[in-house]
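Sequence, please.
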């Protein structure tokens, strides 16, 4: 074991060096701008954040958008993953390829495609006009932002849930049925608790990615759906307020780390509770 340790450290060194140079150092540099303006230490950016009602509203909007998109992805992704888990392996492989197919196209192109579909003269309103109905304003609304983000993040949730479901022994469901449980009871009492960890992991990934979305809200929501990533871009490229942008980025990082911490505590308690139950 002692001989293998230097080899392991040697293999880890390139990855650690790369992460340190490309992630940790820039992150420290950004965070330093929150308390140092280049010439002296200052707390003005932090006070500006606390006094800015616009920034606090944008932070709240970002959190609510991420939460709602995550909820929609879980509501759509979990049943889809459950259906896929019941398919034959060959058919399931083809369906998985179809679900992953959108990842071959960049997010920017997919977002512009939604502009064509949801625009005033887009496919949706053209279809409504053909039916004699009035056009609907979908583009540049929160509805359009949700549609675009769910379309991008839903495959991640499906694949994460599916991976968890495929690890569940199907004989457990058969055993529950043989003991008199109905299909609904065997699902909720046996299958669902075992698949919660996969769904929670997929939801966490979806939520964290939603917090940092930039292109989709900017193009599909316009000025009505500005979230924290758009506000950071505005502070950097237009107002040139780098200190305030750094504070916003640090706040976003803090929210992300807090979510990871809560998730870790919940999963740890769940494991401890399950272990205690098995001990009894």
């Amino acid at each position: 074991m002692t001989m293998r340790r230097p080899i392991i450290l040697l293999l880890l060194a390139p990855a650690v060096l790369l992460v340190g140079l490309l992630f940790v150092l820039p992150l420290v540099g950004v965070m330093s701008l929150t308390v140092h303006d280049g010439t002296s230490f200052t707390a003005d950016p932090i006070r500006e954040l606390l006094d800015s009602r616009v920034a606090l509203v944008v932070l709240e909007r970002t959190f609510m958008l991420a939460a709602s998109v995550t909820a929609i992805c879980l509501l759509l992704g979990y049943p889809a993953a459950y259906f896929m888990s019941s398919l034959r392996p060959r058919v399931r492989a083809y369906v998985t390829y179809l679900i992953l197919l959108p990842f071959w196209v960049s997010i920017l192109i997919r977002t512009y495609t939604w502009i064509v579909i949801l625009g005033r003269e887009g496919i949706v309103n053209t279809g409504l006009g053909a039916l004699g109905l009035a056009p609907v304003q979908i583009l540049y609304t929160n509805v359009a932002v949700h549609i675009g983000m769910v379309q991008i993040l839903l495959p991640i949730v499906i694949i994460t849930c599916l991976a968890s479901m495929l690890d569940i022994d199907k004989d457990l469901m058969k055993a529950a049925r043989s003991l008199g449980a109905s299909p609904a009871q065997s699902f909720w009492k046996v299958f669902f608790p075992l698949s919660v960890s996969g769904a929670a992991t997929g939801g966490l990934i979806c939520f964290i990615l939603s917090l940092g979305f930039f292109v989709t809200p900017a193009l599909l929501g316009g000025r009505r759906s500005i979230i924290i990533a758009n506000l950071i871009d505005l502070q950097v490229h237009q107002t040139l307020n780098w200190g305030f942008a750094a504070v916003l980025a640090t706040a976003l990082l803090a929210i992300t780390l807090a979510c990871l911490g809560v998730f870790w505590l919940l999963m740890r308690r769940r494991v401890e509770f399950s272990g205690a139950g098995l001990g009894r």
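The chain is about 80% helix and 0% strand.
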